Amino acid sequence: MYFLISFIFTWGLGLLPAYLIRYKILRRPLKKRWAIPLAFIIWSIQLVVATYIAELAGLINSKHTALNLVAIVSFYILVKKNKSTMRKN
Predict the structure, then answer these.
(1) Closest CA to 88 of 14, 17, 28, 4
(2) Of the candidates 28, 25, 3, the residue with the CA atom closest to the CA atom of residue 16
(3) How far is Cα 79 from Cα 34, in angstroms, rounded to an integer?
(4) Closest CA to 43 of 11, 25, 18, 68
(5) Are 29 and 22 in contact (CB under 8 A)?
(6) How far is Cα 36 from Cα 83, in angstroms, rounded to an integer?
(7) pLDDT digits (tens, 9 = 90+) for 58-70
(8) What is the model's pTM?
(9) Helix (H) or strand (E) holding 52
(10) Cβ–Cβ contacts within 10 Å for residue 82, how many?
(11) Does residue 80 carry a pLDDT above 60?
(12) Handedness of CA 9, 12, 13, 14 (dihedral sign)
């Protein structure tokens, strides 16, 4: 049960901001100079929240490797070009 909750929190909620920004708000890919800081900001917020939750749960040595992977995937979501934007360029 804990694994399922952490998977949903880490991947589902972790990728949600990048998805919403890319596909619902802007509806176009970001340039790398904007996507890198944005992915870093999203990662920083998620790291703070995950550390806070780990402290509440009493986990002393929690590693956040999955959040690093989520940040990389978030970056690629933010810069990914779809077929319609590739035709315009």
Answers:
(1) 28
(2) 25
(3) 9
(4) 68
(5) yes
(6) 22
(7) 877 667 788 899 9
(8) 0.81
(9) helix 32-57
(10) 12
(11) yes
(12) positive
